[in-house]
Amino acid sequence: MKLFQLCFSLSLLLLLSGCNLANIIKMRYANDDLTPVWPNQTNETVMPAFYNEADKPYIEVSINGIPGFRFMIDTGASMSYLIDTEKAKALNLKKGYSLSMGGWGDQEDSTLYQTRVDSLTIANVAFTDVNMAFLQASNTHYFARPDEATFDGILGHDILRHFRWTFDKETNKISISSEAYKANGDEVAIPFEVTLSKLAIPVEVDFGNGQTVSQDFLIDTGSRHYAKVSAAYVNNNVKLIGPAVTGADFGLSGKTEHFRTTIPGLKVSGQSFSNVKVNMIGPDDDEEDNWILGSALLNQQVTVIDYHTNTMYLLAKQDGQFHSKYNLAGLELRKLQDGRFVIRYVMPDMTTANADFAEGDVIYKINGRAASEISLVEWLDMSAKPGNFEICRTRKSDKCISVNAKHVKGYSAL
């Protein structure tokens, strides 16, 4: 039945979308002949990792022999992207066929084009003649302003599928290997299915009061959240046991508002996670893409994603405790290239909704510290605790505002 629905959907999309969909399909298969070249007698390499942008994993790669390009590792992306940062524009790459890509968001899809790089090197592993999509920050709703582009690109399924990836946020290390993972019995092994470059695993969701559902979840290291569930399914089948607050997320189709709540738990094979903050995504249809495990959940243990065997492994850390963090201040911030923050969204159910903050305001100081000294992850840690904040923003003029962040009973305080 799923195969029939997939074929029908693809046929319909081809009829409706014409050349753009043909170009997207062409792009998705453009790197099928890639082969990674490893140094002699080497089958694994460990790299420094960067998690300072809201839990998402980043590494640095070389392009055309030039080092220092920072790329996000995104298991939810079907293809690899370059973003038009100054460093990427300096490559002077040739513009190819046009693309229009969507995803999260309720605005227009983003415009991109195909390009090609002579070489892409991850640590000491090289690819040659690599196709990439080139995303122009000023022409997409993912970024409100071009200087939000603080990284240079995204590694998607076309590159990721060649390796076994090990993510360890605690040590800030990521490794790749040409060999399958050898289990030792201390980990939870979860086979995943790959459909249209998406990785899916079975998850049991506990909504409380005996309301449980088994559902396939996508594995998405490019999502900063713990988990996303279908709002349509929840609205039609579930009575929430706690309150929901309004939040927003951003994708290639811009901003989408949604509700966030806390559920009693998720169970992934033999691994259980209690009191999980989830985003309820999607308007009307219970789409499969609305069920997602994100990087904030995966990073609380060592995670292995083995494309050689289509298996994910979870290795619990010593304390074995899972914790959801809550944005009690209610400001959704993004870093700018100069180190300051920009407000992308003010959560209407949180304390800052009653203060003089607005989308687009630039935050230059928090609690007496320059914003350039505070990473996004540090801000999320700060705002996860109740307390007083002095947040200085600039609009047409500068203003410092005092706010008192509090728990929301039943949501952040159970």
| Strands ordered across the widest β-sheet | 1-10-9-20-21-11
On the 0 to 100 scale, the average pLDDT is 91
Principal-axes geometry comes out as: globular
| Strand count | 27
Kindly provide the radius of gyration, computed on alpha-carbon positions and rounded to a whole number of angstroms. 21 Å
Distance between the termini: 41 Å
Query: What low-confidence regions span 5 or more consecutive residues with pLDDT below 50?
Result: 1-17
Structural class: mainly beta
Please, what is the oligomeric state? Answer: single chain
Largest sheet: 6 strands, antiparallel
Q: Helical amount among residues, as a percent range?
A: 10-25%
What is the tally of helical segments? 7
Structural overview:
With 414 residues, the protein is mainly beta. Helices cover 13% and strands 42% of the residues. It contains seven helices and 27 strands.
Provide the descriptors you would attach to this structure in a database record.
single chain, 414 residues, 6-stranded mixed barrel, 42% strand
